[in-house]
Design brief:
There is one protein chain. The chain is built from twelve helices and twelve strands. It has about 325 residues and is an alpha+beta fold. The longest helix is centred in the middle third of the chain and has 22 residues.
Length: about 325
Amino acid sequence: MLDRKSDNPNPSGLLDTDLVSELLLGMRLVGVDYRRMELSPPFAYAFGEGDSRAKFMFVARGSIALRAPSGVLHEMKAGDAALLPRGGLHLIGSSPDVSQPCTELASLRREPLCSMVSDIRACDESACSEKERVLIFSACMDFDLGSMHPLVALMPEVMRVGTIMVRYPEILPMLEAMAREVSQGRAGYAGILARLADVVAASIVRAWVECGCGDASGWIAALRDPRLGRVLVALHREPGRDWTLAELAKLMGASRSVFAERFLSVTGVTPVRYLTELRMRLAAQWISRDRMPIETAAHRLGYGSQAAFSRAFKRVTGRSPGALAGEARQERPRVAV
């Protein structure tokens, strides 16, 4: 049974370091399209509508107003960086009154700098000097946390680097390096900027997780409970294992009834449902993103037959794995905006 101290297993509210490591182990945050943008005020642009991929933005010179999908306005100055983990329609402007209608950022002419980095210039050289132009480096990113994908939905729509600078001062040199590279245009600067953007964006996510994930609840609350967190880590580490309620309860150090009650109260679902949904999320990623054969996915997730797996997949996701695989084969690379 649980002891009396379990009501407040982690009074600091921070996540256990080992659990954070497990959480971040499967993180995939890789830039697929980068842009160096030089814009002369006044301007107002829209980007990301219909695209759920993450976006990263770094202001190297000048200032911008960033309006999130919720309507909240974020004013960013030179040296500021932000991760937009869920994508969606965002607006950027040279003044805080930015609103629709805006010009689509995707409509601006792009010149390739290297394989994944483009240069966008929307400058009226007669209207303002180079120092008055706003200089931005941005990226469109493939972002998921593997089996921990629900974490993305719990993140703030805009994650500002300024909120973590005091606790994580090591990010500052990376931002300073980005400012130098984007401004000076030295040999190979585009590739270096792309790598720095990936690292800074990943650092923002790690800092948010290590600081307790803000006000996020659900299974984040479970991770804050070291004993229940051990159960979640075990499920995510071995999703294809034939877990029993008794084995999971033993991991937590509780009876089956107490474990089941505690798991349901914190995560909102039963252990069986949680494991099934976890397996189907992984399967969807493997089949769609990695082009894994359906039979292989079924075997890795502990299903004795492809038919049983397909029934479970359709019950949870509402579609068949075959349909998902067919879409993956037909999908063409998307143009990032």
